[in-house]
Amino acid sequence: MITLVKRPTPSRGWSYTTPLLAVLATMIVGGLMFAALGKDPAQAIRMIFWDPLFGPNAAYFRGQLLVKAGPLILIASGLAVGFRAGIWNIGAEGQYIIGAICGASVALAAYPAESHLLFPAMIVAGALGGWLWGMIPAVLKVVFNTSEILVSLMLVYVAQNLLAYAAFGPLKNPQGFGFPGSRNLQQYPSAHNPELFAGTGAHWGVLAALIAVIGAYILMHRHIAGFRIRVAGEAPRAARFAGVVPARLVMFCLGLSGALAGLAGLFEVSGPSGQITDGFNAGYGFTAIIVAFLGRLHPLGILLAGLLMALTYIGGDMAQMMLGLPGAAIQVFQGMLLFFLLGFDVLTNYRIRIGRARA
Amino acid sequence: MTLGGIDIIVLTATLMAASTPVLLAATGELIAEKAGVLNLGVEGMMIMGAMAGFAVAVTTGSPVAGFLAGAVAGALMALLFAILTQVLLSNQTATGLALTLFGLGLSALFGKGYEGVRPPSTGKVPFGPLAEIPVIGPVLFSHDWVVYASLILVAVTWAFLRFTRAGLILRAVGESHDAAHALGYRVIAVRVAALAFGGALAGLGGAYLSLVRVPQWTEGMTAGAGWIALAIVVFASWRAERVLIGAYLFGGITALQLQLQAAGYAIPVHLLSMAPYVITIVVLVILSAIHRRGAQAAPADLGRSFHASA
């Protein structure tokens, strides 16, 4: 008979070990899945986790790593703050889209004027757009006690339709020969978010992600506000007695994560992607949820988790090209990782006792 | 009978079919939530049901086999959720999200090769002369058996929760798992069963989407229907009869929106497509405003893990 005994406090050792265990388990079960798909599992796993970093074409892929990790880390840093407080913003994908639309709109309105002020203005617009989209569930939660989970998620679909509307309508490139999609911002110097150091893939968004990690670390672990957030998540009643105002917390967490997601969208649309198109959003907002959990909601963990998840994206693309692995396989792989992570977490909070439990 | 280019009879008739997927999924989720488990993975279970149902129906040529497969796929997904949340005591919100992400990926993976195929058609129930009655015929007697089955299911769920001993136990587990445990009921077993039932209905709803509503398989075709189902449970304040009203309301909006698109109004398509989601939010807000004062309708132990401490 196996019984679980609750630990008085979560185990520190296990909380560091479980993410690694989860990655390992995902590799094994994922490998079995690849084998079932008729691919050589060892080769596929090597291609996903090893070749992008050290393989023959690694120089190119290493640059891609930061391009993909940047938005994931930026979004996940904001989400993790809310998750710690028990505030579930799962609509980062929508905030990401709106940030991109707002930022791009500023650039497209100014086109073709050149100014050093344009890019900063776009950054403000992107953050503001995401913040605004995040404030909708926040205000509704505070005023009417509406579930922020459902509202933020519904707003993803609203944002997606807005994006399609913008790409086919108001933001469509007037010189685009009737094709949907906006002007390409990569060809508009004042609005372009370029690679800052050649070959690294690091653009302003990657820098912003690093700043977000440091900022989140200071906020959560060196500042009283972070302490309040954590108390509110772990013991809401105690937090109330300590003077934490839940309404303010909700506004802060959803606003912050919205703004960061909006920034990520802006940096993407002005950099790697270049234009507003119907399918511009690539699911970063949802993958960032996995990143946040894989990083144990800790800023530094998120940094590592974001890089790892970016690796699976790039490796997955590579395996898709070289081995003909279906693109969806990597999505399954990522979902599996989250499952294992959540499952293994039992080890952090409970002791496993084999034999009869003493009464 | 037309109003502003919209045929009211056609609208009402399509409303019932349009509502069926969310009605099934919401009824299933209602049972799970009444047992105290918040499964946010409805979208993932639905899309797996849609894919499995479609694949089996196409392979065997039998829609019935397809619907069964959809229900089984949904239930299997729910059991995965049950193992994680009930045995390994993981966080329900996070696990539900994981289930959705996983389901979307897995269905896309297995669904490859079924795109662009037409499924065998699900026959309408032959009502004979009843279907010939003007107005009432096309509205009430022109549907396939799943539509009627879903209505019966809602009635059964309502009666189960209200009048049966098992329903009472289920509600007790959802209201206070500690009290139910102390009375000797097996909290975990009840919850796993409720989850499996919820998953089966979500899968069935998904299969209805791919086999009848669309009818086609495309990646991510549920497009938020699972989340709308979750919203409907809140809308219904956890009561079966109100789930029916909620589902038909949303189905009506979807049907109306599609008809407006077809009628060629000068509103951009993408703005019309937003309507069901925006209205879901509006309704949620109105409802939360009403319920702000007074007793909360949600089961008291909704979303809490149960661990029997020795």
Q: Provide the succession of SSEs of chain A.
A: EHHHHHHHHHHHHHHHE
Based on secondary structure, the structural category of chain A is: mainly alpha
Q: What is the percentage of strand-forming residues of chain B?
A: under 5%
Radius of gyration of chain B: 20 Å
CATH architecture of chain B: Orthogonal Bundle
Helix fraction bin of chain B: 55-70%
Q: Under CATH, the topology of chain B is which?
A: ABC transporter involved in vitamin B12 uptake, BtuC
Distance between the termini of chain A: 14 Å
Q: Summarize the biggest pleated sheet of chain A.
A: 2 strands, antiparallel
Strands of chain B, total number: 2
The rough form of chain B would be described as globular
Oligomer: heterodimer
* Strand percentage of chain A: under 5%
Write down the domain tally of chain B: 1
Structural summary, described in words:
The complex is a heterodimer of chains A (359) and B (310). Chain A has 359 residues and is mainly alpha-helical. Chain A has helices at residues 12-36, 41-49, 51-54, 58-84, 92-110, 118-144, 148-168, 204-222, 224-234, 236-241, 246-270, 284-294, 299-322, 327-344, 346-349; strands at 2-6, 350-354. The longest helix of chain A has 27 residues, at 58-84. The relative contact order of chain A is 0.21. By secondary structure, chain B is mainly alpha-helical. Chain B has one domain (2-291): ABC transporter involved in vitamin B12 uptake, BtuC. Chain B is 70% helix and 1% strand. Chain B has helices at residues 8-34, 42-60, 63-87, 92-111, 136-140, 145-163, 165-175, 177-182, 187-213, 225-235, 240-262, 269-291; strands at 2-3, 6-7. Chain B has a two-stranded antiparallel ribbon with strand order 1-2. In chain B, a hairpin with a 2-residue loop joins strand 1 (2-3) and strand 2. The model of chain B has no long low-confidence stretch (mean pLDDT 86). The interface between A and B is large, with 52 and 48 residues.
